[in-house]
Amino acid sequence: MNPVKALESHGQAVWLDFLARGFVAKGDLKKLIDTDAVKGVTSNPAIFEKAIGSSDEYDAPIAAALKSGDKSPADLFEHIAIEDIQSAADVLKPVFDATRGRDGFVSLEVSPYLANDTKGTIAEAERLWKSVKRPNLMIKVPATPEGLPAIEHLIGTGISVNITLLFAQMVYVEVAEAYLRGLEKFVAGGGDPAGIASVASFFVSRIDTQADKQLDDKIAQANDPAEKERLKALKGKVAIANAKLAYQEYLKLFAGPRWDKLTAKGAQPQRLLWASTGVKSKDYRDTMYVEELIGKDTVNTVPPATLDAFRDHGEVRDSLEENIDAAKKVLADFAKTGISLDEITSELVIDGVKLFADAADKLYGAVAHKRATSLGKAVGAQTLALGDVLKKTVEKSTEEWRGSAKIRRLWHKDASVWTGSDEASWLGWLNSAFAEKAKLADYSEFATWVKDQGFTDAVVLGMGGSSLGPEVLAVTFPHVSGFPKLHVLDSTDPAQVATMAKTVTIAKTLFIVSSKSGGTTEPNVMKNYFFGEVSKAVGADKAGAHFVAVTDPGSSLEKVAKEQKFARIFHGDPAIGGRYSVLSPFGLVPAAAAGLDLSKLLEHTVSMVRSCGPDVPPSENPGVQLGLAMGHAGVDGRDKVTILSSKKIADFGAWAEQLIAESTGKDGKGLIPIDGEELGAPSVYGDDRFFIDLRTDGETDKAHDDKLAALEKAGHPVTRITLPSIDHLGQEFFRFEIATAVAGAVLGINPFNQPDVEDAKIKTRELTSAFEKTGSLPPETPVVSSPEADLYTDDSNADLLKKAGADGDLASWLKAHFRRVTPGDYVALLAYVERDAAHIDTLQGMRMAVRDKKKVATCAEFGPRFLHSTGQAYKGGPDSGVFLQITADDAKDLAIPDYRASFGVIKAAQARGDFEVLTDRSRRALRVHLKGDLEAGLKALDKAITAALN
Ligand SMILES: O=P(O)(O)OC[C@H]1O[C@](O)(CO)[C@@H](O)[C@@H]1O
Ligand SMILES: O=C[C@H](O)[C@H](O)COP(=O)(O)O
Questions:
Q1: What positions constitute the catalytic site (predicted)?
Q2: All domains of the chain in start order, with CATH
């Protein structure tokens, strides 16, 4: 007789420790049921990993599952695993029926990531139970300290449970007791226990593997030949002895009055299931863990190779209750060797969870890869060309992130990923795209209202995170007919405010006042100014109807918006910091007002959210990969993140630079974003660059690509990102957010605060309150003065510059200042003038001259805008910046209703506050104040810079 089938008559059911789609579909499982009387199937993460990861068998099912909509890798896996479990359960249903619910089960394991999370295990087990919808399903729960209460709870609600990762007899007793308590609860609640089945999967071979390893060490150390023999005799014996004694416990646990009461109600005993019964050592008979554990009311789940071996040469006898004293002696002798079985079994649980988690990582990685392949161009592609050294560092870090579950911890808001301070309070952005999708109807209603009002323009008044996201949207997307044209104003420069006032038709403009805190000076003064203008145009009583506010709940702006009867107030999420807020009302309210298709934008975005999700291992996770590359490049001195955005998405860098700089630039560390520099030949760059090239699919520029290839060849790290279209911009917002958070972890900083911006704000406030009291800003003395310009700096900078050759004229000071620039530095031009096309060009010309001459990274920024963006890194980041602040007389100032200070005064105070913080931090800073005509002054400065560089 077939030895496998013969086990049946010894009271043992054989289950198969294997599952794969084709195996069930092609009828192989059915064959084993018929020929070998196989009565069940067990699966685990390693089994699924093998099935899904190492074949293309699942490519089509994954593609089919994605047809009904994108899914996260975890959801995708669950979807296909459930299909597999269901089909195996259906094939085994006749066994289940024939054995009246004793056999015929298929086991599905809860995620190993939840092994130490009771609540999570319960929730997942209940969800799987409901989704699989088969009476012959068993949910596998590990016998960890946190798994035990879950087992009791699940049994108590009528769910059949297979307890896995069980190694110790003592833990087995606890498991059986949890089962009994669960049954009692279920019965007390009026349930019929006959429908509940449970097995306790007692692991065998893994114990021998560990015991043998330690025995081998002892054998190697032993000098006495008799001692060597005694140790050798224990090899391959411990696991079976341990299992046999567990069975003795079983016999006691499922007997007696307590058990009788339950059997009277129809309860089934929780059988011991021998798991891990494939031999791992070639020294042993391949059927050993079946032959030695045959006994009544047990199950043995065997891998296919063991099943084949047993069918071929297995020997059947009632072995389980044989030689119990000998088994006890084995364990006693083993204890005498000084090796602790308790330690082995405890470590095996921890190790078992880790092994299954490792398998799950591989599995999710494989699913993520298949998902990405199947989605193709729907998710922006990313390639990293890092060079050998950085590549190796990133690979090592990727493995470290995987092993320490950092991406899952990041998503679970574990502040220890960063500095262990308040990071957990700032992670609302992780889920904001999904949260905002749920609000689409409201956005659409708002968009309809905006359209119905007939507004021709919509102007966002805000700074930093409250304005840069809307600006990218405004610049990237074409005007949608019927909706207002979207503009952004983020300045206190009187000329810039006046230009905006002239650009729009005030009476037909919607103003979106955006400030998370509500207390930021610029949006408040801009609001006062335009509220005054709208009041003049349409009447004070109707002005509020032209305004909406986006602000966090309870802010001072909310109060004012209510008093002034704004048309709407949108609340931001206080758990999202400004620079991470674009995929929240701060980006989406302006987008809705402009008539953009938010549904499309968010739908594409959530695909990237899934690609960067907690279930996507670091190696397959584009956000993590980019972040690790940026972070490690930074640590290695390549800290100038040079962003190259193509024509269609040219403004993306303006948003990304705030995110990167304000998040990472602090505590003397950080990344310095370089946006808008023209791409050059390798000779104009130092070895401090990390390039990120972004473009939309189809945007080709041969000259640009050649230059990029040359940089890569010269050893610069180059990341290339291709967006499928501008509609996929949201994907990049999210990719960069994750990447920045990851880079922050690598740098060891808190990426969610901005300590040094606050200092500049305090200085500015001191200066403006002095103005409010006295009517003028405190006097200051230039280090050198000419009819065209004055130069300012602090004593320390002045002394150093003088030593370096600065004397009576402006050119000598500039020369001395630029002489201080050394490789690895960056030069930032910080201009407090109107940010218009001409001035952008002028600044661009200056920076390119500096870059090409000094071969350092350059920034061309406008104040006060950059104060809420890169300003944090300039002050708090690495001390590698050389700053030239440019201020100028305002040709025409502008009064602010309800303020004594004008726009010009506030801007001047901001520039001075900014400069004071730079010099307080001993940064290399010089300020040039242009007098008279601005255009003439800028031209002269341009010339002076060129001269100073030569
Ligand atoms: O939205 P708020 O509170 O006005 O802040 C604007 C910007 O100011 C900062 O707080 C600091 O500059 C930024 O982080 C933020 O995006
Ligand atoms: O339920 C079955 C177990 O997961 C399996 O038997 C473990 O076997 P292994 O130790 O060979 O991985």
A1: 140 (schiff-base intermediate with substrate)
A2: 3-352 (3.20.20.70), 378-412+614-747 (3.40.50.10490), 430-598 (3.40.50.10490), 755-949 (3.40.50.10490)
